[in-house]
Amino acid sequence: MNPATNLSSAITRYVHHDDTLPLPQLRKLGLIYSSYRFVVSLFSMLMLYISARTGNSASLPSFLQQTTLSFYVLLSLILLGLFYVVRKHMRRQLAFGLALDVIILSLLLYTTGNPDLQLTMLYMVVVAASFMLLHGSQALVITLLAIILVIYQQFFYAIANSMSLANLGDALLMSASFLAVGGLSWSISQRLVQLEKVAANHAKEVERLNVINQEVITQMVNGVIVIDKQHIVLANLAAHQLLSLSFVTPATPVTVQNTLDDTKETQNQALLSNFEQQLNEQHSQLFNACLSVASGQSRAFTYDVPAVANASIFGKLRVQIIPLKDDSKLVILEDLRREQASAQQLKLASLGQLTASIAHEIRNPLAAISQASQLLMEDVAEQMEDDSALTSESNAAMTGNHELYEMIFSQTKRVNRIIEDILKLSRQQTATQQVLELAEWMPSFLENYFQGHDIFLRIKTKPIISFDTHQLEQILINLINNGLRYSSYAHPHAYVEIDIYCADNDVIIDILDNGNGVSAGNLQLLFDPFFTTDKAGTGLGLYLSQAFCEANQARLLYIPEHEKTCFRLIVPSIKSDNKFQTIEENLS
Predict the structure, then answer these.
(1) Which of 69-73, 166-170, 500-504, 565-569 is predicted most confidently?
(2) Separation between Cα atoms, residue 530 and residue 548, nearest integer Å
(3) Which residue of 236, 346, 374, 446 has the fewest C-beta atoms within 10 A of its own C-beta?
C-alpha cells in the first residue's frame, strides 16, 4: 500500500471518528460565536458608513460592499436569535452560519481586489471555529469552500482586470494557512473534548462514590454527626434514632426555577437545621460538649440520655469526637446495648461452665435426700395404717414426723427447680437469633403455652425482630406466669394484656396485669438473682429473663409510671409495616 493511500485512510478515519463537544458546551460556544458574528458585521457596517462620510472618493464603498454588509448584519441578527430560541439541530445552524461567513468574506475580499490582512484573520477565525464546533467532515467542507472561493475569486478578478502573480501567491499562501489553522484547531478541539470527557467521568465517579458513602453512612448502626463552623453539616438516620429526634423531611414544591437537585439540597438543609434545633433543645449538654472541644483535639465520654428523650429505650451512649483535617469534627454515637450484650454472653458462658461442673455434685446428694424423705413418708404412712392401736401421743409424733419429711421433700424439689433454672443459662450460651414476625409468631406461641388462660393480645404494627426463639419463649413464659399469679392474688379474675408497638427503631412488648405491682423499696432488687416476694418462687425468673434479653441486644424494664403492672421488653426492629393496623386476640 503506497503512502498516499495510507494518508488518505488516516484522514478518513480521523474525520469520521472524531469526538465532538457535548450539547451544553456546544450551545454555550455557539452563542458566543453567533454574538461574535453579529458584532463583527455591525462593526464592519459602521466602519463602512464612517468611511463614506469622510468624503474621500478613493475610500467610498461600492454598492456591492454596502449590499453585502447590510445583508450580513441582518442575517447575523437572525441567526443569533434563531440559535438562542431553537435548541434543535444546533450543528446544522452553526454549519449554515459558517458557510455564510465564508461566502460574505469572499465577496468582501473580491471587492478589495487583493488579499487583506483583516479579512485573512476573519477567515482564520471561521476555519478554527468550524473545526471546534462541527464534525470533522463538516469542518473540512467549510475549509475547502473557503480555499476554493479565495482562489476562484482571484482568477475571476484577474479575468475582469489584470493578472497579478503576487496576489495569486498571497491567495495560495492564505489557502495553505487555512489548512494549517484547521488542522491545529481540530487537534486542539479533540484534546479539549477528551479533557471534557475525563472531567465528566471524574465527576460521575465522584458522584457515585458520594452516593455510596451516603448510603453507607445512612445504613450504619452507629450515629454519625459532622460539625463544621459550629453548625451540623451531616447527620445520619441512626443519630436521629439514638437521640430520639424526629426524622421528617420537609416537602418543597418543584417549580421551573427550583430544579430537582435544588429541591433535594433545600430539603437536606432544612432537615439538618431541624436536627440541630432539636439537638440544642433536648440534648444541649451533648451539643455544647461537642462544640467545646478545641480544634484538632479528640474526646470520648459516656452520655446519659435524658428522660425527655425517651430514656426507657436508650440509656447510655458512647460519644467519640474525632477531629478532621478541615477543622471540622466527626461525632460518633454508639449504643452501649451491644457491649452489654457481649458482656452478658461472656457472663452466660462463665455461669454455664460453673453450673455444668457443680450440677452433678449437687444433684447426687439432693436426689438421695429426696428419695430418703419419700421413703420415710411412705414408712410413716404404713405404720399409721397398720398400727391402729397406737396411742394418741404416738400418733401425734408420727404425724409430726410425716410433716417434717414432707417439708424436706418440698424443699429438695425447690432446690432442684433452682438448679434447673440456672442450667438454662448453660444449655444455650450463645443466642441463635432468628427473624421473627411477631404478628404471626405471638398468637401461635400463646396458643401453644397459654391455651385456656385470659391473655389479651394487641398488635398495633407488624414488626419484625431478630431473637433467639427459645430464649424469647422463656422470657414471655416467665413474665406471663408472673402476671397471672400476682393478678390472681389481687383479683379473682386473673388476666394478662400484651401490647406490641414500635417506638423509633425499637419494638416494644408490654406485659400488663392488674396486680398490686412492685413496691418502691423492691425496685432496686427486682432483677437480682434469688430475690422474690413469692414463697413458692425461686427468684431467678426475672434475672434469667433479663440475661436472655441482654444476650439478644434487648432490654427488660419495669415501668413504675404505668397505671398497671408493666414489664417492658425492648427489642431492636428489623422492619415494620408503617400502616397502622391493630390486631386484637383474646385467648380464653
Answers:
(1) 565-569
(2) 16
(3) 346
Q: What are phi and psi of 77, to 5 degrees?
A: -65, -40
Is residue 257 very low, low, confident or very high in pLDDT (cuts 50, 70, 90)?
Answer: very low
**Residue 21, pLDDT above cutoff 80:** no
DSSP state of 294: P
pLDDT digits 0-9 by tens, 198-256: 888 898 898 888 888 888 888 888 889 998 888 888 888 888 878 878 766 555 454 44
Which tens digits make up the pLDDT trace of 308-335?
Answer: 444 445 567 889 998 888 788 889 988 8
The mean predicted confidence, pLDDT, of the chain is 77
Cα angle for residues 467, 482, 431 (degrees, 5° grid): 20
DSSP 565: E
Closest to 532 measured CA to CA, from 569, 482, 568, 566: 482
For residue 142, give the 3-state DSSP assignment: helix
The whole-angstrom separation of Cα 88 and Cα 93 is 9
E-strand stretches of 142-292: 223-228, 231-235
Q: In angstroms, rounded to a whole number, what is the distance separating the alpha carbons of residues 81 and 523?
A: 84
Separation CA 308–CA 471 (nearest Å): 32
Centroid of chain to Cα 377:
71
Task: Give the Cα separation of 202 and 207 in Å (integer).
Answer: 8
Give the Cα separation of 106 and 150 in Å (integer): 6
- Euclidean distance between CA atoms 443 and 436, whole angstroms: 12
Show contacts of 227-233: CB within 8 Å, 24+ apart: 227/290, 227/291, 227/328, 227/329, 227/331, 228/326, 228/327, 228/328, 228/329, 229/328, 230/291, 231/276, 232/272, 232/275, 232/276, 232/279, 233/272, 233/328
Are the C-beta atoms of residues 458 and 500 closer than 8 Å to each other? Answer: yes
d(CA 61, CA 73) in angstroms, rounded, equals 16
Region for 258 from its dihedrals, namely left if φ exceeds 0, alpha if ψ lies in -120 to 50, beta otherwise: beta
Cell of 410: 418440698
**In a 3-state reduction of DSSP, which class is residue 552?**
coil
CA atoms within 13 A on the CB side of 565: 21
How far apart are alpha carbons 299 and 357 in whole angstroms? 44
Quick one: what percent of the chain has pLDDT higher than 90? 5
pLDDT in tens, 478-498: 899 888 888 888 787 888 999
Calpha distance 572→313 (Å, rounded):
10
- The DSSP secondary structure of 233-268, one letter per residue, reads EEE-HHHHHHTT----PPP----SSS-HHHHHHHHH
Q: Can you give the C-alpha Rg of the chain in angstroms?
A: 46
pLDDT of 259 reads: 53
- In the chain, the amino acid numbered 411 is Q
Q: Residue ranges of the alpha helices (H) in 2-62?
A: 3-16, 23-53
* pLDDT value for 3: 55
Residues 6+ apart with CB under 8 A from 208: none
**pTM of the model as a whole:** 0.49
